[in-house]
Amino acid sequence: MRVLSKLKKPKATRIIGGALGLLLALSLVLVPAAPALAVPPMPHQFWGTVTIGTGLAPEGTIVSAQIGETEYASTTVDAEHRYGYRTDYGGTGTFMVPADDLNEPGKDGGVAGDTVEFYVDGVKAALYDVDTGESLEGYTFEIWGTTKLNLTVTIPDSTAPTVEINSTATSPTSTSPIPMTATFSEDVTGFELGDITVGNGTAGSFAGSGADYTSGVTVPMMAKMVKCSTKAVIVLSSVSTVQVSSTHLPASLS
């Protein structure tokens, strides 16, 4: 007895569906995914008060921040002597030092670890971190940093000190060397024996510090007149010159 088997013909819909599935799988394998764009890093925000000398900075004073020789942020002081405060808090706007965007060529901001220096009307400011209580010369840049930082600049002393030269010896005197004192109107530094000029004599035994100095002046026998003067000195107040003073010391008759 012969058994006949019947073969089923594949349906057209199954063939089409299988082909579409294969094409979809190939497209997922062969088509590369679009690259994700890097998000620019967040800036470092600063705000605080501004002091010039012993007083608060006036409104409109310029505050700027630099990394190296490049300025990356600038603003002005508000009516409350502050910088970096939002306008809805009476400020002149937030103060942000941008971060370097790695998607762009060149350096257009800070990277973690950079030192940010602040300037008030072009003068480098001393910094005070309100949260940590630290006094700093520069602040380390942080991605997404937020820092309350008070700024202070010192007003240079533009007034030169004066000096008076005197002696306790009478005129004429037999004392040798003749004692000499130089008294400045403020503390100075860098004043040395070589800064004393003596006519008809020689200065020696120099001592002193701050505003008061002494020296002994030796003169030739029977000198009729001794003139002593000081040269320019460097003072602590950063003024590089001093008003020159001269005086006549008593002559030695011994």
Describe this structure in words.
Strands 1, 2, 5, 6, 9, 10 and 12 form a seven-stranded mixed β-sheet that branches. The chain contains one helix and 19 strands. The chain folds into two domains: 110 residues, Immunoglobulin-like (Sandwich); 87 residues, Immunoglobulin-like, CATH 2.60.40. Strand 16 and strand 17 form a beta hairpin. The chain is mostly beta strands and 254 residues long. The longest helix is centred in the first third of the chain and has 19 residues.
Tell me the helix content: under 10%
Number of helices: 1
Distance between the termini: 164 Å
Overall CATH class of the largest domain: Mainly Beta
Beta-strand content: 35-45%
Taken in chain order, the helices and strands follow as HEEEEEEEEEEEEEEEEEEE
The overall strand count is: 19
Task: Report the mean per-residue pLDDT as an integer.
Answer: 79
CATH fold-type name of the largest domain = Immunoglobulin-like
Poorly predicted parts: 1-7, 231-246
Characterize the overall form.
elongated
Q: How many discrete domains? A: 2
